[in-house]
Amino acid sequence: MFASQVAAAQPLLIGLLLLWSSYGKVVGRDSAERTALPRLVGETRAAPAYRAVGVIEAVIALALLLPPAWIVEAIAAVALVVGFTGYLIYAKIVVPDASCGCIGSSARPVGRRAIGRAVLLLATALAATAADDGWWSVGSVAVVAVLVLEAAAFVMLSAELDRYWLLPLRRLRVQITHPLAGTATDGVPLAATQRRLLLSPAYRAVNGLLRSDIHDYWDDEDWRFVSYTARYDGRPATAVFAVPHHDNTPESVRVAVVDETSGQTLYRPTLLVTA
After folding, report:
1. For this UniProt entry, which segments traverse the membrane (predicted)?
2. Percent of the chain with pLDDT strictly greater than 70
3. Residues 16, 61: contact at Cβ < 8 Å?
């Protein structure tokens, strides 16, 4: 009984996700150019194909969300998501720098999270094929809790949403745990901070470990903290620079490389020489 109710509730989640995805494809400008579609179907056909997928998503989403409940709707969703998953694997292998294009606005390349999200969506679509009733007939609190957990899993697998929850958490964690946490003031242009940082011995000491441009920054009294994504001994990490507002010497900049998962300090150069 509970399993059948969970299956019946899946079209609601799938429909909302497909509507969200279709909106990004239909209204997104130039999003198709960043995907693997130009390589797959040609540059001139990439944008029409991208929007066509968005329209198909919207049609299937509305069919899932509106009565009556037909199994063909869930089967169509399964076929669509199988296509999604295959496309993402193709993009990951053939055009590794291409964006997912799943939501439309993100330029982040296809990664394991995007593929994992597609696999999870495929699992929910397969579960929906076992539904006997529509999602509107489900009133169990336990089923609602399952949907909330599934939605949370989709959020965690959606890199497009990182700025709303993951990056603030990372900032808080680094502020609390990294060894350079101290003080900073605001009002200094980021470009000025970056120029000072690039000239510092601290930056030269870890330049080979960095894997991004400025990822995040914040002020805390007399210091500005600037973070970059990095890798240290093959481990994902964050390089955190502490740039004082009231000391313009390059030697005053400090840096620590912190493990991305545990927050443990992996590398903190102490003797920084100017060159």
Report:
1. 70-93, 114-131, 137-161
2. 89
3. yes
pLDDT at 185 over 50: no
114-134 pLDDT, tens digit per residue, is 999 999 999 999 999 999 899
Which of 48, 125, 27, 43 has the alpha carbon at shortest distance from 84? 125
Domain ranges of the chain: 2-157, 176-267
Task: Assign 19 a pLDDT band (cuts: 50, 70, 90).
Answer: very high
Instruction: Give yes or no for a contact between 226 and 197, defined as CB atoms under 8 angstroms apart.
Output: yes
pLDDT confidence tier of residue 60, bands split at 50, 70 and 90 = very high
Residues near 256 by beta carbon (within 8 Å), at least 6 away in sequence: 178, 179, 180, 239, 240, 265, 267, 268
* Calpha distance 187→167 (Å, rounded): 22
Half-sphere exposure of 80 (CA within 13 A, CB side): 27
Instruction: Decide: 206 and 255 in contact? Cβ < 8 Å.
Output: yes
DSSP string, 122-191: HHHHHHHTT-SS-GGG---HHHHHHHHHHHHHHHHT-GGGHHHHHHHHHHHHHHHHSTT---B---S-HH
CB 231 within 8 A of CB 267: no
